[in-house]
Amino acid sequence: MIRAGAVSPVQLAETFLHRLETLGPRYNAVVTLTRERAMDQARRAERELAAGRDFGPLHGIPYGAKDLLATSGGIPTSWGAAPLKDQRFDEDATVIRKLEAAGAVLCAKLAMVELAGGMGYRQPHASFTGPGINPWNLDAWSGGSSSGSGSAVSAGLVPFAIGSETWGSILGPAGYCGIAGLRPSYGRVSRHGAMALCWTLDKLGPIALTADDCGLVLDAIAGPDAADSTTTAQPFHYAGGDAAPQRLRFGVLENVTAGCDEAVRANFEASLEVLRRIGTVEEVHLPDLPWEFITRTILHVEAASAFEELIESGAIAGLTAPEDHYTAYARDAILAKDYMKALRLRRVMAREADALLRRFDALVAPGRSTVAPPLDRDFRSALGGSAPDVMGAVGNGAGLPAVIVPNGFGDRGLPTSLQLMGRAWEENTILAAACAYQSSPTGTTGIRPRGSCACDVRRHGCRERQRVEVRPAPALW
User: Fold this and answer.
1) Has 369 been annotated as catalytic?
2) From the candidates 127, 147, 169, 417, which is the catalytic residue?
3) Is the dihedral of CA 105, 182, 209, 172 positive or negative?
4) 66 catalytic, yes or no?
5) 440-471 pLDDT tens trace
6) Known catalytic residue at 149
């Protein structure tokens, strides 16, 4: 629409700023509206495009960033924590700079769970901006820790957002909110200027409406960075949905639906039928290793170290969730020898996972074991050890890429999801598989909960989507 002249970057920025300002509070999705910066970037994009300087598919497209990414110009970066809500940095995170170079327009810093969940939260209210609210059901959580990113994209407040994942913080909100999310390989995207939760697990990635959009965003933010020694020189260029082989090979871990809701299991079985039409599906077995204990030990120890000053000064008493005031102290008691053992076992984990994935284009599993939990209840958590998540433990512990896409609906009209995980550096393969699934005639494009209509705002805010207009241009959706 921009290239055809049907809409301008300035009109887009004004539209999404208005939506963020007026609808963002409904979902507790926004921490800071970056209006002045957005309009400056939109005007620049408009001039550049008019002069024939096209920087690619994100040029002139608005977006939001999780509020753990540093932003210059006096824009606060709160890390979701009340004691740090006025924190400011003098430079932009590398991801913010790369998106600016691609012509994208930063419209908002988006809400998150305080300190990205590093203090051990176990209920949705662990943020000074309030719980992330799910656009499909206002009594449900949007997920953590990239809660605002999930809510904002799902409600059409921004076309895409940047989230972060240490264990589930991209895939969780995307899955709960019925959209797509991509966790890149560890080291694919620079984390310079991002809050550190766990140095050897943290990853930054896109949340968007489709897997294809996630690939376009990853293309802009991937690549080495001298300021982040963990980034890799492995090249990446998004190949698009056509990169999939003629017959895809999918693996399914045995008992992968154990502990899942009935609707989650049913929708996963239906997804497998779709995948069998575009490839082969084979049940596989992982060796008997303490997958979740390995990754959880690494995360807990490194989080305690990353926030040592906040913990030892007692500043965590100012956090919003009561359990975040004390859980971190228990993590200080984890023995160094246990941490070292977990690091050594991680090598075994990575080796075994790669040996298995070598036979497949992707391992597939339910994206989340349940639909989004209610706002007024504690939730089950892989981080806390109260819910199984072998795929999350292996994927994050071994630094593997994964993409999540919607695959139906469950209780209370809430979305369920499908996860596809691949070998390290094979983002193009899993994105192509996800695109093939989403473009299948029996895939999930346009699927709605039974008994709902396209304009039932209680189900999704679809009325809001229908009102996304850029006058005098036609509706965006």
Assistant:
1) no
2) 169
3) negative
4) yes
5) 876 654 444 434 433 333 333 443 443 344 33
6) no
